Amino acid sequence: MEMGGKCPTIFDSLSGDDMKVAVKRIASGKWGPCSGQACVGIDNILVEHKYASNLIDLLKKTIQRFYGEDMGKFKNLCKIVNKHHFNRLLNLLEDPAVAASIVYGGSLDEENLFIEPTIILDPRVDAAIMEEEIFGPFLPIITLDDIHESIEFINSREKPLTIYAFTKDESLKTQILAETSSGSVTFSNAFVLNECDNLPFGGVGESGFGRYHGMYSFHTYN
């Protein structure tokens, strides 16, 4: 059974069009049609300090291009599923360890159960938003001295449902596959794994057990 879990994204050094494409895919994978309310949605980004500013700037531009600049006029993002989850997300955002770290977004419309895409830079790693599955439009960005530290960061937490990684470094890809454990790993894209019904899908450890899709479902539940 797939249980969910936090899905980190490793964002390595990219340049030019590669970076722009990666950011577009991250924006779609995070906010997409369900405003982050998906088990395989991007939960956080791990990036080196020196690339964080450029990443945030591109994310802001991409959000505005995809969804508009005025929260009240967003037409391509869904609402939060119900009042209970709206209040849960509100509590995450009002945590002082999070509120002081917002670099984009943060506006809420309680009457219409709407929260705009929100980027949070380096919240405390022990904050609730970094411990619980977000299941909403908040995107924490955690900065590192070296991208290889992302392996240690991931391994220090519960096993994710999936790991996303945007990198051209083949040795880093090999390291991610060899030294981490997750339900799946996706390189250079996001949110597409559960559309491949010929591939097994499921979690490991806290993110679930077994696998399904296609014949794998019959093998798991037989």
From TrEMBL:
<dbReference type="Pfam" id="PF00171">
    <property type="entry name" value="Aldedh"/>
</dbReference>
<dbReference type="InterPro" id="IPR015590">
    <property type="entry name" value="Aldehyde_DH_dom"/>
</dbReference>
<protein>
    <submittedName>
        <fullName>Aldehyde dehydrogenase (NAD(+))</fullName>
    </submittedName>
</protein>
<dbReference type="InterPro" id="IPR012394">
    <property type="entry name" value="Aldehyde_DH_NAD(P)"/>
</dbReference>
<dbReference type="GO" id="GO:0004029">
    <property type="term" value="F:aldehyde dehydrogenase (NAD+) activity"/>
</dbReference>
<dbReference type="GO" id="GO:0006081">
    <property type="term" value="P:aldehyde metabolic process"/>
</dbReference>
<dbReference type="GO" id="GO:0005737">
    <property type="term" value="C:cytoplasm"/>
</dbReference>
<dbReference type="InterPro" id="IPR016162">
    <property type="entry name" value="Ald_DH_N"/>
</dbReference>
<dbReference type="InterPro" id="IPR016161">
    <property type="entry name" value="Ald_DH/histidinol_DH"/>
</dbReference>
<comment type="similarity">
    <text>Belongs to the aldehyde dehydrogenase family.</text>
</comment>
<dbReference type="InterPro" id="IPR016163">
    <property type="entry name" value="Ald_DH_C"/>
</dbReference>
<keyword id="KW-0560">Oxidoreductase</keyword>
<feature type="domain" description="Aldehyde dehydrogenase">
    <location>
        <begin position="1"/>
        <end position="221"/>
    </location>
</feature>
